[in-house]
Target: Allantoinase
Amino acid sequence: MAATLHDEPLVVLASTNTIITLPDDSLLLTPATITVSPVTGKILSVVREVLPRSSFPSNTTYNDLSPKFLVPGLVDAHVHLNEPGRTEWEGFNTGTKAAASGGVTTVVDMPLNAIPPTTTLAGFQEKLRASQGQCWVDVGFYGGVIPGNANELLPLVEAGVRGFKGFLIDSGVDEFPAVSANDIALAMTTLKDSPTTLMFHAEMLPPIAESVVPPPAFETYAIEEIVSLAELAPKLHLHIVHLSAVEAIPILRKARKQGINITAETCFHYLGLAADDIEDGDTRHKCCPPIRSQTNQDRLWEEIVEAQGEGCIKTIVSDHSPCTPELKLLPPHLQTVDDNSLRPNMIHSDSGIDMTLPSEHDHDHKSRSHATRPELKSTDSGVVMTLPSESPSPIEELPNPLCLTTTTTVTSHPNPAPQQRLLPITSTNQGDFFAAWGGISSVGLGLPILHTIASDRASHGLPAPDLVDMVRMCSQATAQQVGLYHRKGAIKVGHDADFCVFDAEERWVLRSGEMRWKNKVSPWEGKQFMGRVREAWVRGEKVFSLGSQNGGFVMGRPTGRAITEKRVA
Model:
């Protein structure tokens, strides 16, 4: 057998519950023994039984993990690491630590909110330099599509980006402006013969016929725009990131039936949080698109169960999009850290964000979650939002750009143009969903979230994926989406030896001190989960072991790599 054919010491992992990938790419839950080369970090053999330690040379590192689940390391294809430029929000070190602690062995970094963004080859190279020596898991990178950078797209393909992302609505940061239909068309024609994925933040202000626009229309209108242009690049894979509104599902299904190569992802927070349950002022839940109703969530679950068939949602990701606590405008009762002290006041002034200190003597303990609906106006520079008189609005009905903005003028530019600015923090906008930054921190929590809620749904006879389905959507399909399935997302001979060890029975509660991302703010705090990641392995090395020294990071130093190989599929 393969274990006796190699002179170097071997690493062996075995479990009675292993999810392996068969030659036809189907997944199978089976007892298995996996042999790994610590030299190459590759899987040497997969045997469908648990072999005893005595089957291997004495110098073998043998791990029988039974009855825990041994599954492929997760590939989170939507993470914002924000470095360089906004490292007070997140960074390679803390973001990839959080990923490893949740069995995520590969993340793919979005082209924003770093400064510079990954919209030029020079910007990509700067990001690669910033990542060196900091990553605890392997990291791939996306490029960005913005107005005027079409000539940078093919050089970025050659440099190894895994795909591209553009916004159809204000991104919330000035250095990553939204694209027009003309920009989208140019990106499609530029990339039409490249092995890549063109992704969209699909929210867009519809033509305003009434004073109030139903928020799902932000998504449906944008997706219709993308689909209408798809004929420009018939072979190009198009992808909708963080799909929230189920009203978009029929549009995507129809497009797929017409032969358009388009898929969608949804996020853990859309499957695990519902607007019905969010307390007023709990801006930890602010994200874009917004968290919607329980009815909407139930329909998303039904769609992901159909992922292998007619379903259009093929992947589930975190969209880990952190910021400082101050930018979430948390009400006073949520402004705590591990030592129970108030979070410190700070000034943040960086690339279009100008925050002023709240008064230290003027704390309004009333939380305002949805206080006012902005008046929507379309301008040449994008969407401008102004606040009329106060009128309560349910969370699901919030118009949802990434931040509430006011219009100012940049007088240093020879041709001043409107520029979007976050409103300053004051005691009266704490807990204000409109003014808070939109983004949820959750990288590394995906498997416990899905397993917990799916188990509960199954116990009530509702459609729910099993653990094999979760691996398909969070490892296999995400690896395929970013052109890494030849080495990631599968327990298969020749693949990277990336593993997640999952205890499906352990019950635990997420506390602030267990959040390994930089800013300890998340709506998942205090939630009880069933199922916990115990270990993570990257290329044959155990990088995380819950309860071990160094906070579980047993390697003592980051050994993750930047993935820059040119995509071929």
